[in-house]
Design brief:
416 residues, alpha/beta, Fumarate Reductase Iron-sulfur Protein, Chain B, domain 2, 3 domains, five-stranded mixed sheet, 8% strand
Length: 416
Amino acid sequence: MIDYPELSRLQRELDACVTCGICQSVCPSFQLSDRELLSPRGRIVLLRRLVANDIKPANISPETFDFCTLCYACQTACPAGVRTDLLFIAARKVIADARGIPTAKKMIFKTLEKPERVELGVTLGSIAQKTLGHKAVNTLAGGMAVPNLRTRSFLRGMDEILPPYTHKRARVGLFLGCMANYVADGPALAAIEVLRRLGAEVVLPKHQVCCGAPAFNNGDFDTARRLAHVNLKAFSEAGVDAVVSPDATCGGAFQHELPDLMLQADDELLELALEIKEKTSDWASFVMETLDPVFPPTKAPDLEVTVHDSCHLTHTTGKQDSVRNLMNRLPGVSIKEMAESTICCGFGGSFSSIYPDEAATWQRRKIDNMLATRVPVAIVSSPGCLATLQERQAHDHTTQVRTMHPAELIMERCDW
């Protein structure tokens, strides 16, 4: 039997699956394809064959695991509690080692380690999108769908330490994430302002880099480990009480993938990762549980909103209620639930870039569910989900509902 270290550590997860198929009822990729191999059960059966040496990783099509939004709804649905969040990323590593990482992806991941190159690339990409058009830029990017890029990184234009507007209650390290830094800065700016209004000193370490999710989600663990080293060191040296991210994917990297999967062989880095893990929280949970906000009265009319649940908050941390609890604290705001609030919106990180047409199916389904509530505002707590849904709304000329980050709604309604 050939040993695949990443999978060998997860043998318990492979053994726990009883192939009941409940996971298929919540799996976006299975519902899109209707193929057993593209369902969580099919993938686990394939991995069992792999570790039993019945099949070689080079013979497994990358699509088998790439055609997955990594939403982990299957993990929540699984009666046996199989950790698909770890299994499927480990599988991508084994396949990438055997087949190699496509050149375009490899160049992108290598660039992520050099923030100055990332910023230059984003600036040039933004200019190219405006002059050449999105289709030309997507072609240059190896066929991937590139989101609307900013001409300048958000982090570059911000001070490293932002004092609170009131009595200091906590020192918070903010991990921005690439979507906030290079695509849509509105959610991050609002998130910072709310923290400062509620007494948090916000620290933005200038040396922070990508969380590593694009790399490890595509099997490039070496790049992800190097990025992790930079980030963990930056936030450890910042002397913060907590590490908060407005992006659940990035926060999830600190809480799950880094300590549970990628740093097991590096004792020194693992110890640092566990230290940061204990301090890490999603933005809404930190605001609710630590800052315990009391928002000022508002003269704004009562507002009914609906909430899209972030996949990572729902299926890896179980913290989706923190967003609802926060919205219920806002004077005059009430929540009307949409159908399928926990179903993936189609973003899925690189999924929406590699499979834009399939992602559009889920984007439209999510927006249709928002529209069915007949409320004017939909709350979307992940910047990636928010950006992809707003781009779909613009493309389809859907204006009946505003999609907003919870921090943006707070800043809009509070007379601070």
